[in-house]
Design brief:
Helix content: 25-40%
Largest sheet: 7 strands, parallel
CATH architecture: 3-Layer(aba) Sandwich
Structural class: alpha/beta
InterPro entries: Epimerase_deHydtase, NAD(P)-bd_dom_sf
CATH superfamily: NAD(P)-binding Rossmann-like Domain
Organism: Histidinibacterium aquaticum
Low-confidence stretches: none
Distance between the termini: 43 Å
Number of domains: 1
Oligomer: single chain
Pfam families: Epimerase (PF01370)
Strand order of the largest sheet: 3-2-1-4-5-7-10
CATH topology: Rossmann fold
Number of helices: 8
Shape: globular
Number of strands: 11
Protein name: NAD(P)-dependent oxidoreductase
Length: about 300
């Protein structure tokens, strides 16, 4: 597929783009800075400028596309990951403005230019736990996509707004808009750097619902969505099937989720961030775990 990928130079994108290239896709990376990786076409685009978005989507991806003399090919899909990645990077108003406006521009251009699939990065933060002022517990566990999304912060608000845009543009066009509620992205080198601390102190993962997503498995999820047509508008939790801590599920419930409804029997290491919908609807099957790198102190 010919893919327009925004934010491919970011923490997640720099792993997802190479994965998509390995699957045989052609990728144009639209970002403020280029991605130094063989085979990717880079284009510097300001996504809050609608004119730049329209122009970028109707441009050759590389010089080789000039050779047939048949005009500019169209994109098969857009993967929109570009965003201010969290609170505290920019003033709150700028975080919301950039994230919401850039997403609107990308989705509107897709709708008007006939790009029939948009996969966009939403976030675990939409559930209102990650960046809450104080402790907020989920309504129930494991958290699935039906859980309320009522955040307090500008970053998560922008992601909820993006989901509303996706649902609305699907209603207008009938095209596929898939929102990925991505949990805390972990790069392979971060297991040795960060996880020993998490295994000893599970409270450090409370705001992330004790979950994580390996960047390589995120690439797999995007590819699953590219290969699955006709779902319309959908949102998916994206995480790995195990927790990011050594404590077992019953210990986490006793310590952090007392009084919270537990809606199903859970395995001893099962994530509280349900990925059942992604597994069932698009064939998501994550392969990586911190246990591939570190010994589990609980055995």
């Amino acid at each position: 597929m010919r893919i327009f990928f925004t934010g491919g130079s970011g923490k997640a994108g720099r792993h997802v783009v190479p994965y998509l290239l390995e699957q045989g896709h052609r990728v144009t990376n639209a970002d403020w800075v280029p991605l130094d990786h063989s085979g990717v076409n880079n284009l510097r685009v300001e996504l809050t400028d609608a004119g730049q978005v329209y122009s970028a989507l109707h441009a050759w991806a590389g010089f080789d596309e000039l050779d047939p003399g048949t005009g500019i090919p169209s994109y098969d899909a857009i993967v929109h990951f570009a965003a201010i990645p969290a609170i505290l990077h920019r003033p709150d108003q700028e975080t919301f403005r950039i994230n919401a406006l850039s997403t609107y521009n990308v989705m509107e251009a897709a709708a008007k230019m006939g790009v029939k699939k948009v996969i966009f990065a939403s976030s675990e933060t939409t559930y209102g736990i990650c960046f809450a002022d104080g402790e907020v517990k989920p309504d129930y566990v494991p958290i699935d996509e039906a859980h309320p999304t009522i955040p307090q912060d500008s970053y998560a608000m922008s992601k909820v707004a993006n989901e509303v845009c996706g649902r609305s543009f699907h209603a207008r066009t009938g095209y596929d808009y898939y929102g990925l509620r991505i949990n805390n992205v972990i790069e392979p080198h971060e297991y040795e750097e960060m996880f020993p601390d998490f295994l000893e102190a599970p409270e450090k993962r409370r705001r992330n619902i004790f979950a994580y997503i390996d960047a390589r498995d995120l690439g797999h999820m995007v590819d699953c969505c590219l290969k699955t047509d006709g779902l319309g508008y959908e949102v998916f939790n994206v995480a790995n099937p195990d927790m990011s801590v050594a404590a077992k599920t019953d210990e986490i419930i006793d310590r952090f989720y007392q009084g919270v409804e537990v809606r199903k029997d859970m395995g001893p290491d099962e994530t509280f961030y349900s990925i059942e919908k992604a597994q069932r609807m698009v064939g998501y099957s994550p392969k990586h775990s911190w246990r591939d790198v570190l010994d589990d102190p609980r055995g």
